[in-house]
User: Which sequence fits this backbone?
């Protein structure tokens, strides 16, 4: 992690002066308007304490220079601008290779973070639970492992010998990489223990007849505001990217009288680094276990369609089952002008499972709560199913759902009497069909 104190951050005499650059490559245009992408990158920068975001700029390039990202002319032009503004830290909204990072820092005499590095810094600042801290550390080590060239440019042998692991002849970069690998192994073991504890909690919840509703959405879409409105909790809810990092769950009774367990998750973002998706998979498994996914979407945002597509992409990357029902809340409708609101209302009426409202004011939420209740109010019925002895996973799933009333052993299969809902029956069949 970057030391902001060293740059003059919170522990220094002044805030770290930061500047944001969004490279727009003609050979590889982004999925959204460059100005919108820059605005999001600057919002990310504002979310990190200790920074004074001086400004930002879209830099249009024909292609990325392999050694320093920018061409010589643009490199010098930016150097003069950064020097004039006394910039300490440059944030590049996009991927930067270790070689490019080293060369740019040398050319501009600044510290530099790419998009992944910036998101990691924010996550490190926000993680509050032990699991969150472990996940951030694991993701950060994975990121740093690929960038050892930045810290160690010398590859000369430290001692003579054959170069066996840990022995004479090992280069400094090899020693660092081995140390990182060992630390990552320790972190994974600790996370495995946390994951087992979380699974025990999930197993206990399955025995409670409360369905789980998982809130998902782009960061700053208003999930935590909706969560607080429903639960009376005091989850951090600010107009800031990644205000919520650690998952929060509460039992709540909807105004319709329906009891549910509501789960607030970390917000998604475009180009979410793969290593972060992998590190936070254990946390996001709450979504995989949900009975209903409630997608909270900032309908007032200029890039709302692109944000919705990014959420769908992350859910697919997590392996979220299409069988899990989904409802959309088009949030922040209170920020729309009258003409736009009418247009959005008409669009929502043509879609299935879409509701327009405001988590902040509460407007439009009654219809949403009624739809959630209708979706989850499955009538339970008695049934009999057979599971081959060779498929212990299906039998374990049924017991995990708390629907088994009795069982009888046959020669090749187990016959189970169950009391379940139509939704559980459909999920059982989907699991069985995959085997």
Assistant:
């Amino acid at each position: 992690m970057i030391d902001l104190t060293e740059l003059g951050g919170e522990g220094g005499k002044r805030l770290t002066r930061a500047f944001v650059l969004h490279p727009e490559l003609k050979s590889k245009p982004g999925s959204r308007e460059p100005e919108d992408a820059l605005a999001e990158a600057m919002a990310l920068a504002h979310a990190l304490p200790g920074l004074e975001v001086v400004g930002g700029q879209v830099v249009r390039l024909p292609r990325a220079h392999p050694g320093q990202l920018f061409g010589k002319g643009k490199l010098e032009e930016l150097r003069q601008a950064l020097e004039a503004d006394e910039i300490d830290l440059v944030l590049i909204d996009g991927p930067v290779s270790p070689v490019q990072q080293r060369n740019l820092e040398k050319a501009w005499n600044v510290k530099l973070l790419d998009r992944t590095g910036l998101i990691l810094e924010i996550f490190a600042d926000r993680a509050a639970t032990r699991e969150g801290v472990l996940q951030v550390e694991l993701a950060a080590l994975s990121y740093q492992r690929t960038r050892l060239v930045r810290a160690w440019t010398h590859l000369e042998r430290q001692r003579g010998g054959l170069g066996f692991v840990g022995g004479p002849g090992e280069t400094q970069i090899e020693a660092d990489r081995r140390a990182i690998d060992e630390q990552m192994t320790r972190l994974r073991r600790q996370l495995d223990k946390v994951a087992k504890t979380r699974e025990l909690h999930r197993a206990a919840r399955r025995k409670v007849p409360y369905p789980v509703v998982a809130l998902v959405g782009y960061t700053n879409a208003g999930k935590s505001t909706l969560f607080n409105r429903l639960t009376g909790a005091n989850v951090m809810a600010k107009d800031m990217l990644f205000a919520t990092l650690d998952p929060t769950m509460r039992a709540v009774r909807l105004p319709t009288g329906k009891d549910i367990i509501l789960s607030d998750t970390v917000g998604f973002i475009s180009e979410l680094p793969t290593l972060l998706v992998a590190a936070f998979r254990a946390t996001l498994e709450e979504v995989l276990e949900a009975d209903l996914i409630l997608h909270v979407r900032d309908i007032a945002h200029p890039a709302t369609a692109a944000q919705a597509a990014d959420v769908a992409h992350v859910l697919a990357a997590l392996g979220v089952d299409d069988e899990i029902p989904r409802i959309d809340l088009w949030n922040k409708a209170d920020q729309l002008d009258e003409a736009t609101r009418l247009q959005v209302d008409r669009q929502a009426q043509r879609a299935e499972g879409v509701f327009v409202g405001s988590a902040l004011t509460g407007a439009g939420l009654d219809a949403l709560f009624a739809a959630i209740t209708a979706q989850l109010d499955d009538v339970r019925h008695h049934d009999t199913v057979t599971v081959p002895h060779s498929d212990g996973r299906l039998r374990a799933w049924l017991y995990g759902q708390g629907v088994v009333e009795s069982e009888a052993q046959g020669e090749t299969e187990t016959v189970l009497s169950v009391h379940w809902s139509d939704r559980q029956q459909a999920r059982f069949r989907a699991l069985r069909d995959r085997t």
Observations:
- Residues 127-201 form one domain.
- The mean pLDDT is 80.
